[in-house]
Design brief:
CATH class of the largest domain: Alpha Beta
Number of helices: 3
CATH superfamily of the largest domain: 2,3-Dihydroxybiphenyl 1,2-Dioxygenase, domain 1
Strand content: 35-45%
Number of strands: 8
Distance between the termini: 29 Å
CATH topology of the largest domain: 2,3-Dihydroxybiphenyl 1,2-Dioxygenase, domain 1
Radius of gyration: 15 Å
Helix content: 10-25%
Length: about 120
């Protein structure tokens, strides 16, 4: 769950990132199902302004097209580039921030061999 004082703005942003409408919406709450994971965005009374420690929790979106998706997403209103795509141990990673300042990364899919080590 991502808590926000502007859940509508944040939900509209992530709708553009994942390129689909939420699977469900209820007032200021919106959610997307992704495999066994669920991304929920809603109002939270303790959330104030931009994230003060955005690197503490980072959402990862796997894609085999990190560079292409990075170019698409950085053009979305409210997206902030934190780190351009770079290669690490054969995988590509790019870091951006959403309108609330929360970090999220685009990452190459995990290979089975990487998960075993």
């Amino acid at each position: 769950m991502i808590g926000s004082v502007k859940p509508k703005v944040l939900s509209e942003f992530y709708e553009k990132v994942v390129e689909r409408k939420p699977d469900w919406s209820d007032g200021d709450w919106h959610g997307w199902q992704a495999g066994n994971t669920h991304l929920t965005i809603g109002e939270h009374s303790e959330a104030k302004g931009k994230s003060k420690s955005p690197e503490r929790v980072i959402l990862n979106f796997e894609t085999s097209e990190v560079k292409e998706e990075f170019e698409r997403i950085k053009k979305i209103k409210g997206a902030e580039v934190i780190k351009e795509p770079y290669e690490m141990q054969g995988a590509w990673i790019a870091t951006l921030a959403d309108p609330d300042g929360n970090y999220f990364q685009l990452m190459s899919p995990w290979e089975e061999e990487s998960m075993v080590n």
